[in-house]
Each structure stands twice: as structure tokens, then as C-alpha cells.
Amino acid sequence: MKLTARVGAFEFDGDTLRLAIVRTGGRLPTVLELYAAQASYDSPEERFEGLVEAAREILGKVKTPPAVYTLCASSAYSVVRKMRMPFKGRKRVAAAVPFELEPYLAFPLEELVVDFTVMGEQGGQTDVLAVGMRVEHLEEETAALEAAGAAVEGINLDVAGLTSLWMSAHKEPASLQALAHVRPNGCILAAVNNKRLVFFRHLSMDATQFHDNPAAAAREIQNSLRGFLASWDRELGDVSALTVTGVEMFEEERSLFESGFRIPVQYEQLMGQLRGPALDPAKQAPASEPEPAEAPEEEIGAEEASAPAAAVSKLPEGAHDAWIGPIGVAHAAAGGGFGFEFRKGPLARQNEFREYLRHAAFSGVLALIVLIGYASFAFVDYRQTQSALEDIDREMWDLYVEAFPEAADEYETGGEPPYGWSETYARMQEEIQENPELGQTVSAELFNMPTLLDVLTEISAAMPEGEVHITNLSIQGSRNRRIQLEGEVTDPQAFNNAFASLQASEMFTIDEQPTRRVEGGQETFTITARR
Q1: pTM score of the predicted model
Q2: How far lies 303's CA from each of 82, 144, 247, 348, 454, in Å?
């Protein structure tokens, strides 16, 4: 199910910043607003402030702010590896992926933030496509946006957004399909099998090279596909077709390109399948005007009222496709297809102290800094109430038990911590020093605090579109989250199936049956889940 929401996605293309705002919920997103700005600076040291000013310029033009902002990251900066895990279960796989990826890296694992997508499960094993992104690169982009006033809730890859749009525009492909997404900064070759992204690779070929030397572009794609198929289980099928998006090739160019393939080759313009006020030529000022005037809003309601297309009207024909990446990522953010999430670990939004505290158990220096601050606050508060200090003792002991269950098994606490916070912390330090392999054995739960987008994606996967209508979603708490869903039932059997899917989710715990009511001939429900 695709949740209906107004979502904005930023993308950095060198010194150019783009923002696409779409409305999700349909088969394809409705494009509401498109903006672009160029960062201006005199020296490399001033580049960051230039990006901040470009983001402020764009945000100043937005007519109706979206419910959430995401970032479309370039797959050109990704590290991709197919791996097989000797077990099943998303939490166990999530904990193991970073450490399984580390031997293939030419730099420390700490410099990466890692996510993965499941390619398939068989015989108690899980095949995953693991992807790492350099933290430093994403930190600069998210920091620039947040300095300008845009709170970025999620980070996804352009290949996921582009492939999500392609999937949404087609019936479910029954065989292995290859896709070549041509973008301003290169080409992304991807493969999809059984609604799952099973391969992608960034190629340094832009639209100009497809026009200038179609045969060379075809050879590059062929070689990459051969490399992928070398490790692909042929019993799952062979590549049945190649679809090229993002480039308009002449007949002669197509002939040269297609001659290198033994499979059908087709061409699509993903942008041409989209609709919305921002793409309506009638709403765009003439390109010759130096300062396009604002177009009047039509009777389309606040949700669809778009900004004037001044930001796009000056672009040459075909340049609108530059926005297809962020449009796709915004579409995927609300359950519209594939999704990676890199807004975690060192890039996680640290809005609440407990998020710091969870990571403190695994970083001695950070733990010392954070806990000293926490302890200082607690002792000041102790003058007012003894219970505050006792709460800290319990919190620290709960973290100790969660991180080191075997070490804590010898204590029968009866619900009360056997030590104060300082002694518990000292024991944490001892365990970390005595167990250098801790990162491979610690509970995956501590690494997988779901973001808002994680929760939305999980819910959208369980609730069937058109059969269960969600009217309200609330999330409370940080460590022990309480999630409440309210909605309308249009198909009782479909609702029962959706509820069973939520019960089977590894992200939620649902202790009670849903509350169902019938008022005015309409059946409504309330589901309460906990994380």
C-alpha cells in the first residue's frame, strides 16, 4: 500500500541542488512543485555555505511544505556487494551485513553507513544486496539542508527511486529484467527479479556518450551484465529484456546500440508517464522571460496547488528529466517501491538523549562523554527527587542486560538493578575490553531502531491498497515506541489478512486484537503496536 502524503526529496548534483515535491498514494506520484538552485562560492572552503544558501533559496519558494523531506543520494558513491547469509531473519541479517562487508572494503568500516535489500531466501539462507555509502559525503549534504531549515528524515538511493517508478508503471515483471537509467552524471544499470532489486552498478556514461558511441555504451552494459550473471543462479531465469530510460536516441543510434544484444531492447521516458501541476506547460511562464511571474493557483485544492514553474521553465527541452531521481525517491518514501535507508548509525537524527545512550554502550569514548553529562544532570535532579537517580540506575542496568545477556544471567535482581549506574557502566567497559568480537555477537536489536520511514514502509507493505484505508497514524516514544493505527475497513477478509501480516512483522509487537466499531454503516478499526 502506498500511503497518501506530500513528500519532498532533495538531490545534490555537483553544485546544483534540486527539490521535487510530490503527492503519493496513487500508482504513480503527482508532481506538485519542482525547484533548482546553484551554489555560488569563491573558494572550496566556502562551498558548504554556498550549498546552504542554495537550499535556503529553494525553501523560500516552496508554497506548501511537505510532510517529510528525504534525500536522494547518488549511487555513484556507493559500494555494492551480493552476499549470502547462513541464516534467516531480518534482524540477524542486519547485524551481520556490515561485518560481512568489511573484508571487501579498502577503507575502515566506520567510514560507511550500510543497508541492504533481501534478494531471496532458500534453504535457511538469505541472499542480500548490501550497499554502503561514505558517511562523510552524506554528512555534508544533510548538514547543509538542516542548516537551511529542512529536517531530512530519510536517505535513499537514486537507483531505488528510478526503479520504483518503472515498477509502478508496469505490471509485475515475471522474469529477470535489466534497466539502464541514463542520468546527467552517468548511467545506472539495475536488475529486477520477482519485485526485488537484485543488482545495480553505476557506469560512467551519460546521454552524450549514448549518442556519440552507441556501440561502446552497449558493450559497457553487456560486460556489466555478464559480471552479474556470473554469480546469478540461472535456475531463477536469465535476463529477458533491457529497458533504457532517460535518453532519446535516434533510429540509427538505436540500431547500433541494439545490435550488441540478443535480448529485446526497449526505451521509456519515466518523466513522460508522470502528471501534476509542476509538469503542466500551461502553468509555466515562457522561457524567454528573465523573471517569470507567479502562475495563479487553480481550483485544485491546497494539496495540489503548486509553485510557479519558474525554476524549470528556463531549462532546455528534456532537462526536466533531471528531477526524475528525487521524484522517484519521494515516491518510494511512502511505500511506492524499493527503499534503502542510510539515515541511521552516525547519520541518525539524534533528537532524544536515549538514542545517544543506546550507542554509548558500544563506544567507550562517546559513552564516557555522554554518561558524564547524564550523570551530572541526574545528580542535580537528585536534590529534588531520589527517584530520578533510581530511574537512571534501572536504565543503565536494562542496557547492560540487553547488550550482555550472558554476563547478566548470574544475577537474580527481582526487577531491581544490583548496582548503581557508575558500577554498571564500569562493567560495560570491562565487557567491551574483554570481548573485541562484540560487534559480531551483540543483539541486532541495538542497531535497528526504526526511523519514521522504516515504520511507514513496514505498514504500507502489510496494508493492501484499496481494501484498508488508514485515517490516522501516531508514533510515540523513542526506545519503546507505541504505534497506533486507525482506519476504515472496506473488505473484512483483506483487513484480517493485513492484521495477520502486521502480527508477523519483526518490527512490531501486537499484544491485543484490533478494536473494531461500526458507525453509520462504516466499520472502523484501531490497532495498537509496540516496538
Answers
A1: 0.64
A2: 41, 27, 31, 29, 24
